[in-house]
C-alpha cells in the first residue's frame, strides 16, 4: 500500500512538471498572452475529455468485476449440486452387487430361452441337413447357382447361429462345439463345391460373357453377397469374438486371382513356336500377344463392364492384370536367355509398340493406362540395352576383322584394283551402312539407346583405324623388303588413302544427321574420328611417297655435284615425278592436293638442301652465273610441273626460295648486299650458316668478303612466320664465327 502511494506521488509530481513545462513553452512564444483565455479554455476541454475517458474506463472495469463475481457465484452453486448428485449416485451403486445376484436366475433363464428360440427357428434345417446338402449338390450340378447359394446360406446361417449360442455360454463345452461342427461338416463341403464352380465360370469369363453374360452376372451376385457376409462376420467377430467357420471367404479376391491366372495361361498358351522352329519366333509371339490383348480388352470394355459391379472397376483392373502378367512372362523369357536380335525385339516392343496407338496408347485406352508403371523394371531395360550394345560391339569387331583380312589379301594379290575415276573399295561404305542399320534398329527402341549405339559405333570405327594402320605398315614393310613381292603397291596405297578420307567424310556426314543431339561425348568422338583418319591418311601419304623418293634419292645425291652438268639429274627427277603422278591421279581431289603439296615441299626442301650442302664451288663469277641460271631454269621447270599437276595449292613453294638464292649467286658485287637483304627480309629465319653456305658457292669472294657481306645484313628483330629454312639444319656448320 505504501509503494502505491509513493507511485501516485511520483506520477502527480511528474504531471505537474510536465504541465508547467508545457505552459512555459506556450507562453514563451510571442503573441500568446493575448490568447491566454483561448489557451485556457482549450486545456479545460482536454481535461474534461480525459476525465470522461477515465470515468468510462473505470466503469467498464467495475462492470467486468461485477459480472465475474456473479459467474463465480453460479459456479459455486453448480459445484454444490454436482456434489450432492455424486453422493446420491454412489449410494445407488452400493445396491448393484446384490441386484446382480438376485437377477442371476433371470439371466440364465434368458440365455436358455435364446438358445431354445434359435433352435426352434433352425429346427427345420437341423433335422433336414442331409436332405438339404443333397439338394444343394443337385442344384450345383444343374448349374442353378442362385438357388444353390440360397440353400447354402440357410444351412450356414443355422450352423453359425447355433455355434454363436454355444459361444455365448460362460462355460463352453468343447464336446458340444465339436459335435455341432461335425454335424454341419457337409456345409463347408458345399461351400467348396460352389467355390470350384465359380472358379470354373470366372476362368472362362471372356468366352462366357460373349455367349451367356447372365452366367457371369449370377456368379458376381453370389460373390457380392458373400462379400457382405464377410463384412458382417468380421464386424461380429470384433464385437463378440465369434467368427463363423470358413469366414472370411474373400471370394472377390479369389475372383481377381482367377482372372489373373487365366490371363497368364492365355499369354503362355499364345506361344506356338520355339526358337528352334523359327528364328522369328519372338516377333510372331509378341504380335500374337498384341492381337490377343486388344481383342480381350475390347471384350472387357463392351461386354464385361455392363456385367461387373462398378466397384470392381473391371476395365482398369483387367488392364493391370494383363500388364502384370506380361511383365512377369517377359522377364521369364529374358531370364531364360536371348540370342541375336531378340534383345532388340523385346526392347522395341516394350518401349515403342506397347505404348503406341496399336496397343495401350490407343485413344480408347489412354485414360485407363496413364498411371501404369513401366512394363519392365529399369534394371531389366538397362540390362537388355547393355546386352544389345555388347552384341553389336562383338558384331563390329568380327566384321571389321574380316573386312581388314579381306583387304590385306587383296593388297597382296596380283590383281590390279578396278580402274575408276577414283580408286577405292566398298569397305568404308559397307562399314557405315552397318552403322546406319544398327542406328535404325536403335531408333525403334529409344533416342537414348540410339545415342549410345552411335557412340559405340564411332568408337569401333576409331578402333578399326589402329588395326588398319598396323595392316598398312605391315603391307609397306613387306613391299620394301622385296619390291617384287607386291606388284601393285602404289595402286593399293592410293586405294588406302582414298578409303581413309572416305571414312572421315562418311563420319562427318553421319554427324550432320545428329547435329541436334546435345551429347558432349558424341561430339568428342566425331572429332576423334576425323583426327584419327586424317592422321592415318597423312601417315599413309608418307608411306606412298616413300616409294617415289627411294627412286629419287640417287638423283638428288647427284645435284650440285660434278655429275650435275653431265647427267642432268633434275630432268630425271622431273620425269619420275610426272610418271608417278599418272597413278596418283586416281586419288580423290583433297588427297591428290595434299600429295602434290607434300611432294612439292619435299622436293623443294631436298633441292635447297643439296644446293646448300657445299658439294661443289665455282672458281669464277661466270661459272657461278651460269650455274645460277641453270638453277633458276630448273626451279621454273619444277614450278611449271607442280602448277600443271595442281594449280590451286596453298602451301609454301620452296622453289621461290631457290630462285631468290639463285639471284644472289648471279648478282654482281655491287648488288650482292641488296639481294641478301631481300632474301633475309622474305625469309627471316634463314641462318648465318645458310648465308655462308650460299656465298661459298661464288668463286669470286674470299672468306673475309663473305664474312663482311653477312655481317652487314640486317636481321629482322621479330620473326612473324616460319619458312623452309627453319627446317634446313646441316650437321656441320661452316667454320666462320659471326655475331648478328
TrEMBL record:
A GO cellular component annotation in the UniProt record: exocyst
Record has Membrane as a keyword: no
Domain of life of the native organism: Eukaryota
GO terms under biological process: exocyst localization; exocytosis
Sorted UniProt keywords: Exocytosis, Transport
KW Ribosomal protein (keyword) present: no
InterPro entries according to UniProt: EXOC3/Sec6 (IPR010326), EXOC3/Sec6_C (IPR042532)
Any Pfam family the entry gives: Sec6
GO molecular function terms noted in the UniProt entry: SNARE binding
Family: Belongs to the SEC6 family.
Protein known as: Exocyst complex component 3
Organism: Phaedon cochleariae (Mustard beetle)
